[in-house]
Design brief:
With 199 residues, the protein is of the alpha+beta class. It contains seven helices and six strands; from the N terminus they run H-E-E-E-E-H-E-E-H-H-H-H-H.
Length: 199
């Protein structure tokens, strides 16, 4: 049985990424950077096959708290952005791989763009203290539905349970009258978080 286009494309990208130190772990690529920090590269896939790269940074200690609270997925980045948003000249948001096309050349183009623009983003955000200062100073840089969760976990990891509690309370106020899935999920998260820090 012949592999699918998606399998062919991911294999071509994997081969092109190998020299960069990024290793495939299930559905993403990680580059271990020491001290529990990893560069992260994931793809949105659509169409016949359009690949939209996202780059980010993971922190093991953040992942461990998320796992204990039952939120997120393993090796999810604390910050990420589309690779195309980092290209200053002519943004390239997606790479299209055609059936029967030259997947190796397209993958090499993607990885060259990633090496030039994505890796500096990872380098810039790979230091915990600097990243935390940035996120706390500019909470609007995070998506609304994840802001309170991330900030509460960040404050907890930095030993400030009081600030974590304030963030949780503001999050509760924000979803107070809502019954949608995000509001229910947030209330459940806040309850688990409080139970965890009460131990």
């Amino acid at each position: 049985m012949r592999p699918s286009l998606k399998t062919d494309v991911l294999l071509a990208v994997d081969t092109a990424l190998r020299p960069t130190g990024f290793v495939r772990r299930r559905h993403v690529w990680l580059q271990e950077r020491g001290d529990g920090v990893a560069g992260w590269l994931g793809f949105g896939l659509s169409g016949a096959l359009d690949v939209t790269p996202l780059v980010g940074v993971c922190f093991r200690r953040y992942d461990e708290v998320c796992r204990a609270l039952g939120v997120g997925i393993p090796a999810a980045p604390i910050v990420s952005t589309p690779l195309g948003a980092l290209v200053p000249e002519k943004a390239v948001w997606r790479w299209t791989f055609e059936t029967g096309g030259d997947h190796a050349a397209s993958a090499s183009s993607l990885v060259a763009t990633f090496s030039k623009h994505g890796k500096p983003y990872i380098d810039e955000h790979a230091e915990w203290d600097a990243l935390v200062r940035e996120l706390v100073a500019k909470p609007e840089s995070m998506l609304d539905f994840e802001r309170a969760r991330k900030l509460a976990i960040i404050h907890l990891l930095n030993g400030d349970a009081g600030a974590a509690g304030e963030v949780l309370e503001k999050g509760r106020e924000r979803v107070a009258g809502s019954r949608d899935v995000h509001a229910r999920s947030y209330r459940a998260f806040a309850h688990r978080f409080e139970m965890m820090i009460a131990r």
